[in-house]
Design goal:
With 1465 residues, the protein is mostly beta strands. The chain contains 11 helices and 97 strands. Strands 89, 91, 92, 95, 96 and 97 form a 6-stranded mixed beta sheet that branches. Strands 2-9-8-4-5 form a 5-stranded mixed beta sheet, with no helix packed on it. A 5-stranded mixed beta sheet has the order 11-18-17-13-14, with no helix packed on it. The longest helix is centred in the N-terminal third of the chain and has 55 residues, at 84-138.
Length: 1465
């Protein structure tokens, strides 16, 4: 990677959206700019007098004349207004007609105005962009050409400090005196600042001695800053040594103690601690402080650092300082923000600083298992179309390893992200090509593993695609009066046509997948833009291949991909411009693609040491190969969990790290891995397990020194132990004393004081003393306490008691706490009878007495406190004389339960001992667990035993009895007041003693009592299961008080790992009735279980065993695995089914009904194992006993099903269920008898349970209402319907699960239409019954020999009697001698033809008709002559009648109605 620094124009480059690239717009703007320039030039000539000459006098006269003309015009206008009303009436019509024209003109002018504004805005934007481009081309950071120089002057003289600076934009200069900003407005007489043509001057008028200082000037613009300083020494006109301020070092002048500088003290109050956050969150680190003195014009300088790098205001961080608080805010956290943050308050008196670590963990992955986002994305070696992007890999402690990265780019001003690489790049560096010159870009990176793609990283700083060498081709020469001349090499090399070849072609970066070539541009290169073409050749091939044949390269470097791994290549580069291509450059040395940076080796030994209660210091040996390391990742794991968590989420560069956020008292192990651009090293070996505890230090200072007694020559003092012992037990205390108004302290005793009270002897009566105490432990002596107040050595003689002392707190909860104290040393004139407890909230005045009556105990539980409030307490002892001195006021205590507060638990151990247990993870090696009863320390070793191990402590009851009832407490020293209590009442003690008795007299726990199980072969298994049995356990089976041994009859076994003991009896007979018992013994524990099998219980077991035995024997031959059963198919067929098993080819299957064989169409396929018998339409004739038989030489099996009674009814119900589901809506069918309501079904049987209802009243079948049906229909016949038959009709069919209803509303139009149809059909039926008919007697064909007589006779019917007419060949003929007709009694009609001839052959018809209609019957008569063969006819055929319709009046029904429209519900 190139180490060239990022040019200043890229660091401070302002990025604009490139929306001005439209060529047409550019041409319009250029034309507009040219016109505007010409107009400005013409205006200049006119205003400057170049076009015409005018003197001042003429100009004044012209203005006077113009004023007079205006006045005259106004006068005429006033006169005209008096006649306006008349003129308005005259001009009204003309003005109205002109209004439209004026509106049109106004619209036209408005449109032109908008166009001008639009063009003006475009021109302004173009000019702004051009101005920005020009500024960018000349922009540079401030550069001081002439620096300040030091001065030495006499008092009352003036001095001027000057320097010269250049830069663009013009730098802003600020002057400082001893790092304090100089503002002329604050003292305009003393200071004056000038700035002209890059020369800046500070004038100090009449300098005096206080003006001796170090002066500095700082020039700043957007690209950077520069500074210069000097010293000013002001001499005084006096003898002796001359003063010199302390800040000026270049002069060897002695300091004067008369010179005083303002000293600022900074004291931090509330500080930000170690912070844990997540990516994407907002966060503010705050630190409040007190600045003394707090001067508005003289304030400390605040600086924030992350890992010793100064932080400035940016898009991601905001700084604030004011009102006694310094804050650093993060708008959107990323892992880039993780690190050690330091706040530095810089003053003249020095630097006050505070540091804490900020941890930022990965945001929740968008895809489960995806890695965290990369970080620290940076751009390097940017050029016209090329940049190298680098980043740091994420820690993948809990995710699968990263297999590569995707690099995305986005042009500044847009939100269109484009992926740069098609395949994931495996190292943390990628050369991005294909950039557009002059455009600005930002980049981001995403990691990829087997689970998916991570969230994108934080975007990089914007980078502009420019060549830094372009600035070197321009030279600026400054001349007088601020003018400058810019010379470009392009102008000097205008004669160059084809550029020369590039030089110094070499590989600046080599990777396994690509090679980055770099070269120097040709010199000279010419005025025209130069591009490059790269060619490669595999060593030994002899051929050259152009790498970038499609796109020319503008930058003097290029990344070549698609190289064969392990093969050496040589390269050369050609320059080109519009005139042509140069000769190739010199060929490079052979270059082989390979990774020059390898994966680092694993770090060495990892050592963890104690630090605080929640952190440890982890150190490790650096890996052997540590080149190009990004840093290290540290992981930690709870011992035994094998679950690793990342400690840091951003690589650290040092081999020492403080791991925070650990649980106090837990054991952890640590491991470290190194990381570079290629990837991660192997994990180091795990560290030794370490318990999280604070490191050993000196104890903190004691506090609360109190005078407990005084006899005039000695004083008894008491104090409180240090809050923290430093991790080691406090060995004792050292005490110092001094008399009031004395400066020196004197030891009270040279030896350690082991307690917290001590009597100081040999004091002077009535003298005042003060004391201080220091604690000592194994590490050393801690800080001494603050000096006590002045105690007067005067003998105490008051009758009231002295003060109680040693106030401590325990069991601080949300609304209560327990206060403990020690009895006063001085009791007064009578014994102490009790104590009063007072308390109040901090910052309040009124004390509250917690107990109305004095308590005789030296502890008291204060309740009804407010959660989250802070209180102080004091105690007063009481005797017969009254209330004594108050104790010292306690330290403030916050009434709030600590997070993770644990309580005392009770239990019984494996030996049956009753105990109370307490765990404290905050305990250290120096902590002690103090058990007490009624808040008095337990010292009775005959009743109790205390065992403490690490952070656990137990209080054992040796001989528990009723006297052990009471309140037990525990407190842990060297912690933040960890304590708890437990009330042992009668009920709890009894419960524990019961458990203890059970433990001391154990029984083997049973999972299951003795039970039996009947197996498939009819065997009976007796079994019992215990929780567990050891290998040494024993057992015995007893039946009817007689132990049985393992034998063929009683097979006994034991599965000790599972605790199962069983006995198997193959032949269970009538002799086995009785009581069964199992007795178990395992060490001291015993148990037994019995099972009684007598009477009905035994008979039930015996019957089931016999059944299982028979079933087993049955299944040895062909048998039914599923017995015969029935089901109803969707087609409403009844299907008998059974399943067979253990069959062979010779097996025979047969169906039977009522003992007779049933023939089926298909022979059952026994290989399929299923047999079926189908009954298509079930009826009563199908009732009976059905049987299936299966047999072969191995045996015979039968299954039977009785399709009678309840079974038959159930089948009918199932059929009803299916039919009910398929029931159609009710439909109307009219007949001559009446109206019929029909419901069509898949299947209908009269035995189905159905019902018809009319108006919710059930209908029974009568002559009036007949109920019936067919195979697929159920109907209700309403004979001779009347008005009463109107209404809702419901048909309901009852299935096995539910009923199904169909309803029809037979009323209104539906009834009228049905009734009309019924009347019509009824009339038609009546007509059909009474119309004229030929009942019989006429054949259809008659043959007769000529000369004979033909007689056609038939019987007719009709009511009324019909009219009979005969026809021949459809023509009516009358009777004569040969033809005669007769009708006897209105019933018998005849036609007689005498002496038939051949002419009589033909069709003869009889027409029978009355008012209800009739019919015509045709008879064909064939006459043959004598001697001819008689024609053959088919005998026995009667003539077919043809109906004759009735008259309209005969068919007219009684009622008229419309057609039939059935209703459905």
């Amino acid at each position: 990677m190139s180490s060239v620094a990022v040019p200043f124009y890229q660091r401070r480059h302002k990025h604009f959206d490139q929306s001005y690239r439209n060529i047409q717009t550019r041409y319009v703007l250029e034309e507009y700019a040219a016109r505007k320039a010409a107009s400005r030039q013409a205006a200049y000539y006119e205003s400057s007098g170049l076009g015409r000459t005018t003197c001042r006098l003429c100009a004044r006269r012209a203005r006077t004349l113009a004023h007079e003309a205006i006045q005259e015009s106004r006068k005429r206008t006033h006169e005209q207004k008096s006649h306006a009303s008349d003129e308005k009436r005259i001009r009204f019509a003309s003005e109205l007609s002109a209004l439209e024209k004026e509106i049109h003109t106004a619209r036209h002018h408005a449109r032109e105005h908008l166009d001008r504004l639009y063009i003006q805005r475009m021109v302004e934007e173009k000019m702004a962009l051009e101005r920005h481009a020009v500024e960018e081309s000349i922009s540079r950071a401030p550069e001081i050409l002439v620096r300040l120089r030091s001065h030495t002057v006499w008092e009352k003289m003036s001095v001027s400090l000057c320097f010269t600076v250049q830069g663009f934009p013009t730098p802003v200069v600020q002057w400082y005196k001893n790092e304090e900003l100089i503002t002329p407005a604050s003292d305009p007489v003393k200071y004056r600042i000038e700035s002209k043509y890059g020369v800046h001057v500070l004038h100090i008028n009449r300098a005096d001695f206080d003006d001796s200082a170090t002066y500095s000037a700082v020039a700043t613009n957007v690209h950077g800053q520069a500074s210069t300083n000097c010293a000013v020494v002001v001499r005084r006109f006096r003898d002796g040594e001359e003063p010199h301020p302390a800040g000026i070092m270049p002069f060897n002048l002695p300091l004067s103690y008369d010179v005083c500088f303002t000293h600022i003290d900074v004291e931090f109050l509330e500080k930000f601690g170690v912070t844990f956050a997540t990516e994407g969150e907002t966060l503010t680190l705050k630190c409040s402080m007190v600045v003394t003195p707090d001067l508005k014009r003289l304030r400390p300088r605040v600086e924030w650092y992350r890992d010793d790098v100064l932080i400035k205001d940016s898009k991601w961080t905001k700084l604030y300082f004011g009102e006694g608080q310094a804050a650093l805010s993060f708008t959107h956290l990323n892992k880039d923000d993780e690190g050690l943050y330091t706040l530095r308050m810089i003053t003249k008196g020095g630097v006050s600083e505070y540091s804490a670590y900020l941890f930022v963990k990965d945001a929740e992955a968008l895809i489960a298992g995806a890695p965290g986002a990369p970080m620290d994305v940076k751009c390097h070696d940017a050029n016209r179309d090329y940049v190298i992007v680098t980043w740091k890999p994420p820690n993948t402690t809990k995710e699968s390893p990263v297999i590569g990265y995707f690099v995305d780019k986005c042009e500044v001003g847009s939100e269109n992200w484009v992926q740069c690489n098609d395949a994931p790049v495996k190292i943390c560096k990628y050369p991005v090509t294909g950039l557009y010159e002059g455009r600005s870009y930002i980049f981001r990176v995403r990691a990829v593993n087997s689970a998916g793609i991570s969230r994108p990283s934080r975007v990089s700083e914007p980078i502009k695609a420019l060549d830094p060498a372009d600035l070197e081709r321009k030279q600026t020469i400054h001349v007088d009066e601020g003018r400058k001349i810019v010379i470009s090499k392009d102008d000097l090399e205008g004669h160059i046509q084809i550029p020369g070849p590039p030089t110094n072609v070499h590989a600046s970066e080599i990777s396994r997948t690509y090679v980055v070539l770099s070269w120097e541009p040709p010199v000279p290169r010419g005025r025209e833009p130069v591009t490059y073409f790269i060619e490669k050749s595999m060593v030994g091939s002899g051929s050259w291949q152009r790498v970038n044949a499609q796109v020319a390269v503008k930058s003097p470097r290029y990344a070549v991909f698609d190289l064969a791994e392990g093969k050496p290549y040589v390269f050369r580069v050609l320059s080109a411009n519009k005139h042509g291509i140069s000769d190739p450059s010199e060929i490079t040395e052979p270059i082989q693609p390979q990774d020059t940076v390898v994966v680092p080796s694993a770090p060495g030994q990892v050592v963890a040491t104690r630090n605080t209660k929640t952190s440890v210091v982890v150190q490790w040996d650096k890996p052997k190969q540590e080149e190009d390391l990004y840093g290290y990742y540290i992981d930690y794991s709870l011992v035994g969990s094998n679950h690793w968590e990342p400690s840091n989420h951003k690589p650290i560069k040092y081999n020492r790290f403080v791991v925070h956020g650990l649980e106090t008292g837990e054991q952890y192990v640590f491991r470290v891995k190194a990381v570079n651009a290629v990837g991660f090293s192997e994990n180091s070996q795990e560290s030794e397990a370490i318990t999280i505890q604070a490191a050993l230090t000196c104890p903190s200072y004691p506090h609360g020194i109190t005078l407990l007694n005084c006899d005039g020559h000695s004083m008894t003092l008491g104090w409180k132990a240090p809050r923290y012992s430093g991790g080691s037990p406090v060995l004792g205390y050292y005490m110092d004393k001094r008399e009031a108004n004395h400066h020196n302290w004197h030891e009270v005793t040279s030896s350690l004081i082991t307690g917290t009270t001590y009597t100081v002897e040999d004091l002077t009566e009535d003298a005042f003393y003060e004391f201080k105490v220091a604690a000592a432990n194994l590490v050393g002596v801690g800080q001494p306490s603050d000096p006590s107040e002045h105690f007067k050595c005067t003998a105490w003689t008051m009758p009231e008691p002295g003060p109680a002392y040693g106030l401590t707190f325990c069991e601080v909860r949300n609304t209560s706490l327990v206060l403990l104290w020690k009895a006063p040393v001085y009791e007064g004139k009578s014994p102490i009878t009790g104590y009063l407890v007072d308390y109040k909230e901090v910052d309040t005045e009124d004390w509250i007495t917690a107990n109305e009556k004095p308590t005789s105990k030296r502890y008291f539980k204060v309740t009804e406190l407010h959660e989250g409030h802070t209180y102080v307490f004091k105690v007063r002892a009481v005797n017969d004389a009254g209330v004594g001195k108050s104790s010292e006021i306690s330290e403030p205590v916050l009434v709030e339960a600590r997070p993770g507060t644990k309580e005392i638990s009770s239990g019984v151990d494996d030996e049956g001992n009753i105990y109370l247990a307490f765990e404290c993870k905050e305990a250290t090696d120096a902590s002690t667990f103090a058990w007490g009863k009624s808040y008095e320390e337990i010292e009775d070793s005959d009743k109790f035993k205390i065992e403490t191990e690490e952070n656990h402590s137990k209080l054992y009851f040796k001989n528990p009895d009723k006297s052990d009832v009471g309140t037990y407490c525990i407190s842990v020293s060297d912690t933040d007041g960890v304590s708890s209590s437990f009330v042992m009442d009668d009920e709890e003690l009894e419960r524990l003693m019961t458990i203890s008795h059970e433990v001391k007299n154990p029984t083997i726990p049973l999972k299951s009592e003795l039970a039996y199980e009947i197996l498939d072969k009819g065997e009976v298994r007796f079994w019992i299961q215990a929780e567990s049995l050891s290998p040494d356990s024993t057992f015995r089976f007893v039946i009817n008080d007689k132990e049985v041994e393992n034998s063929d009859r009683h097979k006994i076994s034991c599965d000790r790992p599972n605790g199962i003991i069983e006995m198997l009896m193959e032949q269970f007979t009538i002799d086995n009735e009785g009581t069964y018992t199992v007795q178990i013994q395992d060490g001291k524990a015993k148990n037994q279980s019995s099972l009684v099998l007598i009477g009905n219980a035994f008979k039930e077991v015996l019957d089931v065993a016999e059944l299982h035995r028979r079933e087993f024997l049955r299944k040895q031959g062909p048998h039914f695995s599923e017995f015969l059963h029935w089901e109803v198919t969707e087609e409403c067929e009844v299907l008998f089914s059974c399943k067979v098993a253990n069959t062979k080819k010779e097996s025979v299957f047969q169906w039977y009904k009522d003992g007779s064989g049933v023939d089926t169409d298909e022979v059952p396929d026994l290989q399929k194992g299923e047999c079926h018998l189908c009954i298509p339409r079930l009826s009563r004739k199908d009732e009976g006993v059905y049987k299936a038989s299966l047999s072969d030489d191995r045996g015979h099996d039968v299954t039977t099903l009785e399709l009678t009674g309840k079974v038959y009814d159930d089948v009918i119900l199932a059929l009803s269920e299916l039919s009910g589901k398929s029931a159609s809506p009710l439909k109307i069918l009219c007949t001559e008898e009446g109206i019929r309501l029909q419901c069509f079904l898949k299947y209908y049987n009269e035995e189905m349970k159905v019902s018809w209802s009319h108006r919710e009243s059930k209908i029974s079948s009568t002559e009036k209402l007949k109920i019936g049906g067919g195979e697929d229909v159920a109907w209700l016949q309403i004979n001779e319907p009347t008005e009463k038959d109107k209404g809702n009709y419901t048909f309901e069919i009852f299935g096995s699960k539910e009923s199904y209803k169909r309803t029809l509303d037979l009323s209104g139009q539906a009834f009228d239409e049905a009734y009309e149809e019924f009347q019509r059909l009824k009339a038609a039926a009546f007509a059909e019954k009474n119309r004229g008919k030929v009942i019989g007697g006429l054949p259809d064909v008659v043959t007769i020999m000529d000369g004979k007589t033909l007689n056609l006779t038939c019987t007719v019917f009709g009511n009324p009697d019909p009219e009979v007419v005969w026809f021949k060949n459809d023509s009516m003929f009358e009777s004569n001698e040969r033809y005669s007709f007769s009708l006897e009694h209105g019933k018998h009609a005849s036609l007689t033809i005498k002496g038939v001839t051949s002419e009589d052959s033909g069709k003869y018809s009889i027409h029978v008709k009355n008012k209800y209609g009739g019919e015509t019957v045709d008879v064909t008569i064939s006459v043959y002559r004598h001697g001819e063969k008689m024609p053959e006819i088919q005998p026995g055929q009667l003539a077919k009648p043809k109906p004759i319709p009735p008259s309209e009046e005969a068919l007219k029904p009684e009622d008229n109605a419309s057609g039939i429209v059935p209703q459905e519900t």
